[in-house]
Known about the structure:
The chain has 361 residues and is α/β, with parallel strands linked by helices. Helix content is 45%, strand content 16%. The chain has 14 helices and 12 strands. The strands form 3 sheets. A 5-stranded parallel β-sheet has the order 4-3-5-6-7, sandwiched between helices. It has a 5-stranded parallel β-sheet with strand order 9-8-10-11-12, sandwiched between helices. It has a two-stranded antiparallel sheet with strand order 1-2. α4 (59-76) packs parallel to α8 and α8 runs antiparallel to α9. 5-amino-5-deoxy-1-O-phosphono-D-mannitol (M6R) binds at residues 58-61, 105-107, 110, 113, 156-158, 245, 354, 357-358. Its EC number is 2.6.1.16.
Amino acid sequence: DMGGHDTYMHKEIHEQADAVDRALRGRIDDRFSTVHLGGLNLDARDARAVRRVKILGCGTSYHAGQIGAQMIEELARIPADAEPASEFRYRNPVVDPDTLYIAVSQSGETYDVLAAVQELKRKGARVLGLVNVVGSAIARETDGGIYVHAGPEVCVVSTKCFTNMVVSFGLLALHLGRTRDLSVADGKRIIAGLRKLPEQIAEILANEGEIEKLAGEYADAKSMMFIGRVRGYPVAREASLKLKEVSYIHAEAYPASELKHGPLALIEPAMPTVAIVPNDDLLEKNRAALEEIKARSGRILAVAHQVQEKADHTIVVPKNEDELDPILMGIPLQLLAYYTAKAMGRDIDKPRNLAKSVTVE
Ligand code: M6R
């Protein structure tokens, strides 16, 4: 039942405020400025013993993991990184007992992720799951984990589940941080930020009409560039994947800092750039990248916390805490992908050549 929406993608994009609310419900502990994650199976002693975090997933779930790794580094100061599960499996990885492995998956059935989990377990590693589907294979095979509670996601293209994965990583990062050196004040600050998310998501979605118009402006592009830095980079990668999947427009994502090392050669009016420009300590650096693109007659659509003068258009999103901004900045770009695909008459819920869960190698 699509409840009045024309596609599941549109419905699921609009379910995000409620979905995030569900991910937070019952988990926040104001007294100790932390969160409780029931199924984690990791006591305070285990949490303090973690020396490194390795996150494994595929596609959108891998991108959620990249944001998650940054959150864990920032809030818990544990070295963390994300890698496609498929790559990890095939390179005979060093499995380290002091590393906490986290498998991320909407379906909980993705073969490459499941095989990575099984391999890790054979080698004696501790593996947690960050999964949407309750009781799925990955949920069963892991030692504990977090259900992201996005609710059923039908569209092949993941939207609300991505958002809830990133929120769940925020909860985990806060939890790990508070068992280590994260201050009570920072704990409170992050909790306040998390609580603001549902309302801010609703605010972004209320702006849908403007994004629909913008999709019309850019639907003629043969190819699009997505750029961001640090927190904005995985957001750019995910937005680029979204556009490719539903509209079949070619898109690339680069760190803004890498432009001058090659991709700047592609910039011309027919190759618009979507730039993620948060108001954080990299704002001036991001603005410099916009200038470089403008100087080559590139069209720019910025997603930012304030109007960017160098951009042709800016989608202004509400500001949260710096660490949580990536959760919000991708949401208008889900709508951009949706409206672009719609204008092109694409089969939005079932893009060609793709399946909802990839249970084969
Ligand atoms: O079910 P999973 O999260 O394990 O699926 C992983 C990817 O196949 C999935 O995210 C894919 O990239 C989606 N089509 C993204 O929209």
